[in-house]
Amino acid sequence: MGRVVVEVMPKPEILDPQGKAVVGALPRLGFTQFTSVRQGKRFELEVDGDVTPEILAAAQEAATTLLSNPVIEDVVSVVDATEVPA
Measured in whole angstroms, how far is the alpha carbon of residue 40 from the centre of its chain? Predict the structure, then answer.
């Protein structure tokens, strides 16, 4: 069984209230080295068999038509899960 990982992030010009809340909380917890946070979404799509170029192309199409809102979000990556660092 294969798995495709899709990552979606808000476009840079879109406000990110969740990221803003996280960046405000980090210093209170002792994490003072971080100056900005953007919160996105990660999807894991499982497929029967191996992840092929055709599967990746279908996942890219699904990402742009269903998994993301192209008005406010960018699809950052669509990759075979075996290529994602642990």
Answer: 5
- Say how far apart CA 11 and CA 14 lie, in whole Å: 5
DSSP summary character for residue 67: I
At residue 61, the pLDDT reads 97
Q: Which helix (H) or strand (E) holds 1?
A: none
Mean pLDDT of 52-67: 97
77 SS3 class: strand
- Do residues 44 and 4 touch, judged by C-beta distance below 8 A? yes
- Burial class of residue 75 in the structure, from the number of CB atoms within 10 Å of its CB (0-12 exposed, 13-18 middle, 19+ buried): middle
Residue 79 three-state SS: strand
Contact 84/36 with Cβ under 8 angstroms? no
CATH superfamily of 2-83: Phosphoribosylformylglycinamidine synthase subunit PurS (3.30.1280.10)
